[in-house]
Amino acid sequence: MIRAGPKTSPASETLAHTELELSGRWRVVVLNDPVNLMSYVMLVFKKIFGFNETTARRHMLQVHEQGRSVVWTGLREKAEAYVFTLQQWHLTAVLESDETH
Amino acid sequence: MKRIEVKLSLPVVAPLLDVIRELADGLGRKLAAPQEFGDLDPEFRDAWHGDLLADQKADVGQLLALFDDEFFTEGIVAFDEDNAEPIVRACAAVRLRLREVFLRGLGDDTLEGGDVELGDLSEPVRKAFMCYLFLATVQELIIQHLDSSIIDS
After folding, report:
1. In the A/B pair of chains, how many CB contacts fall below 8 A?
2. Are strands A92-97 and A25-31 parallel, antiparallel or unpaired?
3. Would an 8 Å CB–CB cutoff place B110 in contact with chain A?
4. Interface contact flag, A84 B95, Cβ < 8 Å
5. Rounded Cα distance, A59 and A3, in Å
6. Over chain B (153 residues), what is each successive 10-residue block's mean pLDDT?
7. Cα distance from B115 to chain A (closest Cα, Å)?
8. SS (H, E, C) chain A
9. CA pair distance A8, A80, nearest whole angstrom
10. A52: confidence class by pLDDT, cuts 50, 70, 90
């Protein structure tokens, strides 16, 4: 006879869900705005992510022309820190779950 | 320490400071750029928002501090490795707020292209747009001369 396990409470389901979310991969996405200068956006990318000129320009142009650019992917805690810093610099930045992983 | 001094035209810039001061009050209470906080825990979200707001307020304070007695007597403002970063950020905050408060009617394409006929604008919008351009010039100056100081700091 197999003993039934304890019933799962809604609270523990939420906890398990949260842990899964935290352990997954997350994308830091910068969205376009009509105000910030291209040179400013590049400066911010170089400062925060250590991008070189070419990479910073590529991401800036992606934001400008396609409306968004994924600038970093990784663990949630670090992604949150990057989003916070981008918001400190007044770029519109959001956190997205990376569903491709 | 790298430092640049810029001589500004007092009659042109002084009236723009009224616009910046007017918006600075609001920037102590509201973020310049609307931000999404997603699924963050409400307590964490409030702390996050509060920290952003405090940083924004401090940066705008640094921008206003540029226009001190020396500016009103000599027309000179100085940027260096200490103030470049907060000032370039504060310019972004005020420009975003200018768009929100005064420049919405111009449309984003016009604003992005900068192709505006000043004579067609009402006085408050014209002044706001001049301020918007002035702050962009300050940002360009800082980025041109002090970008490595900001990136390496």
Report:
1. 64
2. antiparallel
3. no
4. no
5. 55
6. 93 94 94 84 91 97 94 95 97 97 90 84 94 96 94 89
7. 13
8. CCCCCCCCCHHHHHHHHHHHHHHCEEEEEEECCCCCCHHHHHHHHHHHHCCCHHHHHHHHHHHHHHCEEEEEEEEHHHHHHHHHHHHHCCCEEEEEECCCC
9. 30
10. very high
pLDDT tops 80 at residue A9: no
Instruction: Sort out which chain A residues have CB atoms less than 8 A from B143's CB and list them.
Output: 37, 39-40, 43
Rounded to the nearest angstrom, the gap between the alpha carbon of residue A98 and the centroid of all alpha carbons in its chain is 9
User: Considering only CA atoms, which of B75, B87, B81 is closest in space to residue B150?
Assistant: B81
Sequence-separated contacts (24+) of A81-87 with Cβ below 8 Å? A82/A28, A82/A48, A82/A49, A83/A28, A84/B48, A84/B51, A84/B52, A85/A48, A86/A28, A86/A30, A86/A44, A86/A48, A87/B31, A87/B33, A87/B35, A87/B52
Mutation site, B27, B30, B35, B102, interface A, largest A CB count within 10 A: B35
Contacts of A43 in chain B (CB under 8 A): 88, 143, 147, 150-151
- What pLDDT, on a 0 to 100 scale, did the predictor assign at position B112? 81
Is the confidence at residue A14, as pLDDT, over 90? no
A84: tokens are 């916070």
Interface of B with A in 83-102 (CB under 8 A): 88-89, 92-93, 95-96, 99
Range in A20-29, A47-56, B54-63 the model is least confident about: A20-29
Q: Would you say B70 and B6 are in contact if contact means Cβ atoms under 8 Å apart?
A: no
Q: Which residues of B touch A46 (CB under 8 A)?
A: 147, 151
